[in-house]
Amino acid sequence: MDSNKLIFEQVAEIVENQVLDGYLKANDQSPSTTEFANVYSINPATARKGLNILVDEGILYKKRGMGMFVTQDAKKIIINKRKDEYISNILPDLIKNMTMLGISKEELIIEIEKLYKKEQDND
């Protein structure tokens, strides 16, 4: 676990990443609180808190007595959430640092295009 983030946030992020990478698909069962507790040596209540956040966000749904499952819109919800977080939290710092370093918008665009091409070549 990453000491810079709260454990329950990391639990939620693990499930989100499993949805994004296709390991968990719509209607698949999420790992249980017990599984998280055993694998990561954490309190089951902490794992439950992370999973309940995903229920509140519409990423997981509960089936009484059966566990939690991935919703139909989970992937779309996660992508939109992360895009919003990126635009609100990371992009402003990037622009601020670029300005301080004298990197122009044009230079940034050129570098972004190179990175996109490299990423596409790796796929």
Write a brief structural summary.
The chain contains five helices and two strands. By secondary structure, the chain is mainly alpha-helical.
Please tell me about this protein's structure.
Helix content is 66%, strand content 7%. By secondary structure, the chain is mostly helical. Strands 1-2 form a two-stranded antiparallel sheet. Helix 1 (7-20) packs across helix 3 and helix 2 packs across helix 3. The longest helix is centred in the last third of the chain and has 28 residues, at 74-101. It is elongated, with a radius of gyration of 18 Å. The model has no long low-confidence stretch (mean pLDDT 94).
Note the topology.
Elements: H1 7-20, H2 33-40, H3 44-56, E1 60-63, E2 67-70, H4 74-101, H5 105-122
Antiparallel strand pairs: 1-2
Helix pairs in contact: 1-3, 2-3
As a whole number of angstroms, the C-alpha radius of gyration is: 18 Å
Structural class: mainly alpha
Strand order of the largest sheet: 1-2
Largest sheet, in brief, is:
2 strands, antiparallel
Question: What letter string, H or E per element, gives the SSE order?
Answer: HHHEEHH
Question: What portion of residues belong to β-strands?
Answer: 5-15%
Helix content: 55-70%
Give the terminus-to-terminus CA distance.
28 Å
| Shape estimate | elongated
